[in-house]
Amino acid sequence: MRFSKSLLVLCLIIFVAALGASSALADARINQVHHFGGDVLYCTTEDGCWFVNIKGEPLWEVEQSVITDALADACESGEAQVIEAGAGTYGPSQLVVGCPSSITLVGFDEWGKQNTMQFTPDYQPVNPAPSSLNLCSYYLPGRYISMDGIHGSVGWDIWSTNPWSFIRWVGDDPGLPACESFWS
């Protein structure tokens, strides 16, 4: 009996810690879909870009003036400019700035795979068009826990349908088609 109470307390502590970490990522991130091992990119036209780990701890920051100068240099020279941003959780990361007005984040995921994501200097989150991927969403009315094991509030789980695999939980309607019954 004593062991089960200790196990319950431990599970509650882990759940609360995970919930706190996930709230740090809710959600104006640029990499809404692109995966960098849990690392998240945020950018504003006032401050520039900063990269945080899955716990919300800062990894690196690039000031907006550096990005603006790199954009000008790229357009003047006709060659992409590389900003060595710093280390992500799973390896080095950089911003590659090109003309006309593109920024590409290059970084690594937990499997050592190099990933890239291109976005514009207005820093809108990068979401693929729903028809470009085989994605669907499963509505969670609040009494169900997300497949991530963290979220128990109203939201949507996003799934890939080919092959079936869980992508992530979101709190706002992602505008994807509803998943057909994949449990059967």
Radius of gyration: 19 Å
Residue ranges: pLDDT <50 for 5 or more in a row? 7-26
Helix content: 10-25%
User: From N to C, what is the helix and strand string?
Assistant: HEEEHEEEEEEE
Could you tell me how far the N terminus lies from the C terminus, measured between alpha carbons in angstroms? 37 Å
The geometry reads as elongated
> For the largest beta sheet, what order do the strands appear in spatially?
4-5-6-7
Largest sheet: 4 strands, antiparallel
> How many distinct domains?
2
Number of helices: 2
What structural class do helix, strand and pairing data support?
Answer: alpha+beta
Q: Per DSSP, what share of the residues sits in E-state strands of 2 or more residues? A: 35-45%
Mean pLDDT: 76
Oligomer: single chain
Beta strands, count? 10
How would you sum up this structure, described in words?
This protein has two helices and ten strands, in the order H-E-E-E-H-E-E-E-E-E-E-E. The chain has helices at residues 2-23, 64-77; strands at 40-44, 48-52, 58-63, 81-88, 91-98, 102-108, 114-119, 135-140, 155-161, 164-170. It is 20% helix and 35% strand. The two termini are 37 Å apart. The chain has two domains: 1-127, no CATH class; 128-184, no CATH class. The protein has 184 residues and is of the alpha+beta class. The chain has a four-stranded antiparallel beta sheet with strand order 4-5-6-7. A hairpin with a 3-residue loop joins strand 5 (91-98) and strand 6 (102-108). The relative contact order is 0.13.
